[in-house]
Amino acid sequence: MNLGDIWNSIFAFDNYGEILALVQNSVWAGAVLGLLGGLVGTFVVRRDLAFAVHGISELSFAGAAFALLIGADVVTGSLVGSVAAALTIGLMGGRARSKNSIIGVLMPFGLGLGILFLSLYQGRSANKFGLLTGQIVAVDTVELQVLAIAALAVIAALVIVWRPLGFASVDPEMAQARGVPVRFLAILFMFLLGVSVALSIQIVGALLVLALLITPAAAAQKVTSSPVLAVVLSVVFAEIATVGGILVSIGGRIPISPYVTTLSFLIYVVCAGAAAVRKRRGGARSSPEALTPPVRVESGV
Amino acid sequence: MTAPGIDLSTVTEDGGPKGLGVGESRSGEASAVALRSASLSFGPRTLWQGLDLDIRPGEFFAVLGPNGSGKTSFLKVLLGLLPLTSGSAWVAGRPPGGAGGEVGYIPQQKGFGPDVPLRARDLVGLGIDGHRWGVRVRRRETDTEIRRLLERVGAGGYANVPVGQLSGGELQRLRVAQAVAGDPAVLLCDEPLLALDLNHQQAVSALIDQQRSETGAAVVFVTHEINPILDYVDRVLYLAQGEFRVGSPEEVMTTEVLSELYGSRVEVSRVNGRIVVLGLPDATTHLHHVHDQPALALDQHSEEDGS
Ligand SMILES: Nc1ncnc2c1ncn2[C@@H]1O[C@H](COP(=O)(O)OP(=O)(O)O)[C@@H](O)[C@H]1O
Ligand SMILES: [Mg+2]
């Protein structure tokens, strides 16, 4: 395979309009997941749960692989796997640091199980590969509806607990003193995270869920310290990555995940670069909204 | 543990009864904070027992004692984060933890990470409505209230600075603003002066006392160091060696009382209106316990106002 062939596998725009019409549902699915990922991601980043997302997605993969093996519904399988993992981590209690070793133990176990189930599975290998790396499965209208309803339910729950969850995420001790049910919110959020991971896996695959649930929010946090703006940017970045990734990918022959992850990585790099430049220009206290930037009296030199 | 603690303050300035004996059974609902036969133990270790206490609205109540004597645990009981081993407690007329908005809390100082997406104004906003369900709808009113609180503690100049970039003193002013949002009936402060320079110690103490005198809030102020708040303190709870003493600073901060409490000779003297305590058992390991010995630097970690 020469470079030209590789290029043509990655980017192909023949008959773009016709293909776009065919994968319309996938684009919508991507838009729904972008919204979900952008919103959930802001809390993932604030609660320092990046590693947990990874652990959950491995177990979600194991659940999906098991469902594939026994001929059950794959979405249900991945949902069961990820919610079980998320609740386990949530009930473990403690702060992120003490959880990380538990997650580190869960992760290879889940991945190992998943690979075991896939090895036993006799069906189409495209199904196997898709679970790990994502694919544009031709999302039919019913699937899109189920996805949209599930995502909207998660978002509605997030909106209801928005303020206390944010309080508990950044300032837990104070939140608890003010009567916020910190522990309940932690477990509820893990449940919502589990559902979100299972939904995201349908598009980007188990290995690359981080690109949807973490990178956009982390990038947003680089460029703003306003909580509201951080959420807006996180959603915008996630939409660019998913919808943009799908639109670029549809002509080529490879799964969608490399497009999505590359786009979200590029967004992060740009944001991190912008943050670094601003820091150098404005000193430690710079922030885009700062009313009074630190004033240094210039000596005559 | 031999003798339980003794309440030295049986009579207030206005002549009314202040401490209640173990046998008395007033419910304590009129007090800002009330404890009845309260004790707290971790396993075999008793931090205090037989504690009967009524803190009045508008009272400035200090909790003193060496490291590990149970000062933070005392506040955690009042916050409802730690159950009493025995006895009962009320805060703002409710069981601990049940009075949500009526309790303001200033936690033991802990900084924020540099990347936390939170500006000074957002931190104060959390104190106003962070505990409510849903998303913030009444933005303008909340913004006005945030601005008022920021001005009140002199933090208007760094309203939009991320909390991870603030100095200890700046952050502590915000903690005061956050805690007094909604004018709570009880202010619980856990070593709010720790790691602050003298200026900020005075400023933060004055802010807390100002809130007390303007709103009638009861202040429970945990501290290593009584001198920065000596002008404000009505009564002191001194915890040491599993025992306690309650009374005015004049009653508790004496050579006799502290020597008895520590079970060894402790010298208390007054120099220029400040209280100096010498000979504390662990004074060699914790310089902070030497109550403002003039020869020592007041604060080992004094830091600059970083703007
Ligand atoms: N949850 C807990 N379980 C067991 N021991 C505890 C717990 N919390 C505090 N302690 C112990 O109780 C003692 C008092 O702690 P603390 O209230 O933090 O003291 P202070 O604030 O006066 O320094 C310490 O020896 C501490 O180790
Ligand atoms: Mg303490």
Fold and architecture overview:
The complex is a heterodimer of chains A (301) and B (307). Chain A is mainly alpha-helical and 301 residues long. Chain A has a single domain (15-287), classed as Orthogonal Bundle (ABC transporter involved in vitamin B12 uptake, BtuC). Chain A contains 15 helices and no strands. Chain A has helices spanning 3-10, 16-22, 24-46, 50-70, 74-91, 96-120, 125-133, 141-160, 162-170, 172-177, 182-204, 210-213, 215-223, 227-249, 257-282. In chain A, helix 3 (24-46) crosses helix 13. With 307 residues, chain B is of the alpha/beta class. In chain B, 25% of the residues lie in helices and 22% in strands. Chain B has helices spanning 71-79, 120-129, 139-152, 168-180, 198-215, 249-252, 255-262; strands at residues 6-7, 33-42, 45-55, 60-64, 86-91, 103-106, 186-190, 218-222, 235-240, 243-247, 267-271, 274-278. In chain B, the strands form three sheets. Chain B has a seven-stranded mixed β-sheet, sandwiched between helices. Chain B has a three-stranded antiparallel β-sheet with strand order 3-2-5, covered by helices on one side. In chain B, strands 11-12 form a two-stranded antiparallel ribbon. In chain B, helix 5 links the parallel strand 7 (186-190) and strand 8. The structure holds adenosine-5'-diphosphate (ADP) and magnesium ion (MG). Magnesium ion binds next to helix 1 of chain B.
Which ligands accompany this protein? Answer: adenosine-5'-diphosphate, magnesium ion
Overall strand count of chain B: 12
Q: Encode the helix/strand succession of chain A as letters.
A: HHHHHHHHHHHHHHH
Q: What's the story with the biggest beta sheet of chain B?
A: 7 strands, mixed
Write the layout of secondary structure elements.
The complex is a heterodimer of chains A (301) and B (307).
Chain A: H1 3-10, H2 16-22, H3 24-46, H4 50-70, H5 74-91, H6 96-120, H7 125-133, H8 141-160, H9 162-170, H10 172-177, H11 182-204, H12 210-213, H13 215-223, H14 227-249, H15 257-282
Chain B: E1 6-7, E2 33-42, E3 45-55, E4 60-64, H1 71-79, E5 86-91, E6 103-106, H2 120-129, H3 139-152, H4 168-180, E7 186-190, H5 198-215, E8 218-222, E9 235-240, E10 243-247, H6 249-252, H7 255-262, E11 267-271, E12 274-278
Parallel strand pairs in B: 1-10, 4-8, 4-9, 6-7, 7-8
Antiparallel strand pairs in B: 2-3, 2-5, 9-10, 11-12
The structure holds adenosine-5'-diphosphate and magnesium ion.
Residues 42, 47, 65, 67-73 of chain B line the site of adenosine-5'-diphosphate.
